[in-house]
Amino acid sequence: MSHDRLAGKIAIVTGAASGIGAASARLFAEEGARVLAVDRPGSAIDTAHEGVAAIAPLAVDVTGKDAPADIVAAAVRQFGAIDIVFNNAGVSGRTFVEEMADEEWDRVMGVNVRAMFRICREAIPHLRARAAEKGRARIINTASVMAEDTDYGLAAYCASKAGVAGLTRTLALELGKFRITANYILPGAVYSGMTKGNFDKPEIAEIWAKKAALRRLGQPIDLARGALLLACDDADFITGHGLVVDGGLTLRT
């Protein structure tokens, strides 16, 4: 396998301190990209990629008023351009609608959809400029199989991930003429920073591993490889697509 599929490219990855984001930042760097790795202050972002020269950390809360401008400006300042925006930062929660406070709904929607929309909006002029010069640019957004399915207590999460899908399809339509593709990944049950509280319990991990056709939980690298597929030049004619990376979790209803 060649290790230069992203040679010369500049990527922004959010939620990059742990889980899917951390694995993706590292894989993108291994494949030749220079990466701005973003996560919130107080996360492990400043130490997560120590010793990897191609990865520059940035501690910013993606929901902050100036976050999109700060993130895009940092990428342009450090690396000179932007080829790939991978909006991966996300949060979950589990509360029945009847008991859910406005604040919880707003928090999940704020991180999972609103921040993603605002970062895309800020990055588009830079992606357009890069695509005009290089022939392509990429937006990749993390949704979830819960964009299309559901479970008890996941109203805010499912609504937000369905929102990611709708946002991304529309971006694909609007940006296609500029040779910018926009796609989303739909992870299944993945062992990550967001889920480890649950999946560290063997009985829960076992149930979810059994549900997948491949009989295991997803690992962050599995999803990073999915993102890489959509990021590399081979994906030039794939846009508006939701790539399910779930080990066959959703094959059975």
Number of strand elements: 7
Query: Biggest β-sheet: count, sense, barrel?
Result: 7 strands, parallel
Radius of gyration: 17 Å
CATH level 1 class label = Alpha Beta
Helix content: 40-55%
CATH superfamily: NAD(P)-binding Rossmann-like Domain
Domain module tally:
1
What's the helix and strand layout?
Layout (H helix, E strand, L loop, with lengths): L9 E5 L4 H12 L3 E6 L5 H4 L6 E5 L7 H13 L4 E4 L14 H33 L2 E6 L12 H21 L4 E8 L8 H4 L2 H10 L8 H12 L10 E4 L8
Parallel strand pairs: 1-2, 1-4, 2-3, 4-5, 5-6, 6-7
Helix pairs in contact: 1-8, 3-4, 4-5
Describe what this molecule looks like in 3D:
This protein has 253 residues and is of the alpha/beta class. It has one domain (10-192, 219-245): Rossmann fold, CATH 3.40.50.720. The protein contains 8 helices and 7 strands, in the order βαβαβαβαβαβαααβ. It has helices spanning 19-30, 45-48, 67-79, 102-134, 155-175, 196-199, 202-211, 220-231; strands at residues 10-14, 34-39, 55-59, 84-87, 137-142, 180-187, 242-245. The protein has a 7-stranded parallel β-sheet with strand order 3-2-1-4-5-6-7, sandwiched between helices. The protein starts with 9 loop residues before the first strand and ends in an 8-residue tail after the last strand.
